[in-house]
């Protein structure tokens, strides 16, 4: 696999960045508030476990760093094979 800087690799980066931003928005809007509420309730009993902020950081890293990087690296390969 040869790393090339082309329109297809930039398109792959933008597509995967969009997917990452959408997944981050969904997580922040619907998943994180429930995790935080459960964590705050469990802090009263001392059985809270892992802080939800660790999960938030991992979702941000995947959505904003790893997915766009993979989109850039494999965008040229995938999008050129779709176009023929």
Write the layout of secondary structure elements.
Elements (H helix, E strand, L loop, with lengths): L6 H39 L6 H32 L1
Helix pairs in contact: 1-2
What does this protein look like?
This protein has 84 residues and is mostly helical. The chain is 85% helix and 0% strand. The protein contains 2 helices and no strands. The chain has helices spanning 7-45, 52-83. The chain is elongated and about 60 Å long. The mean pLDDT is 90.
What are its keywords?
2 helices, elongated
* Rg over C-alpha atoms, rounded to the nearest angstrom: 18 Å
Shape: elongated
Distance between the termini: 18 Å
Number of domains: 1
Low-pLDDT segments, ≥5 res: none
Q: Quickly count the helices.
A: 2
Percent helix:
over 70%
- Sketch the major β-sheet: none
Extended strand count: 0
Strand content: under 5%
Structural class category: mainly alpha
Order of helices and strands: HH
Average pLDDT value? 90
């Amino acid at each position: 696999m040869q790393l090339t800087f082309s329109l297809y690799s930039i398109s792959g980066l933008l597509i995967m960045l969009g997917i990452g931003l959408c997944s981050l928005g969904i997580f922040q809007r619907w998943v994180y508030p429930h995790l935080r509420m459960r964590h705050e309730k469990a802090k009263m009993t001392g059985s809270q476990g892992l802080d939800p902020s660790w999960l938030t950081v991992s979702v941000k890293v995947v959505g904003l760093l790893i997915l766009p990087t993979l989109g850039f690296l494999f965008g040229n390969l995938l999008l050129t094979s779709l176009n023929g």
